Amino acid sequence: NQVLKLVSDMLLILNKADIKKPFKMRFKDLEFLEDTVYQSYDTTRRNGENDYLISHDNFMNFFKKNLLIGFLNLIFFSTSYAQLNKDYLTTYDSIIEKKNLIITNGLFHINNYRINNHKNIYYKEELFVVGEISYLGQNYYDLKLKFDIYNDDLIFNPIGNSENSGVILIKPNVLSFSIHKSKFVNLDLENKKGYDFINGYYEEKLTKNNFAFYIKHKKSKKKIIQNKNYVFEFNHEISFVVLKDEEYSRINSKASIIEIFPESKKIIIDYFKNNRNLKKSNSIMFYTNLFKLITL
Question: Which value, in Å, is the radius of gyration of the alpha carbons in the chain?
Answer without folding.
Answer: 26
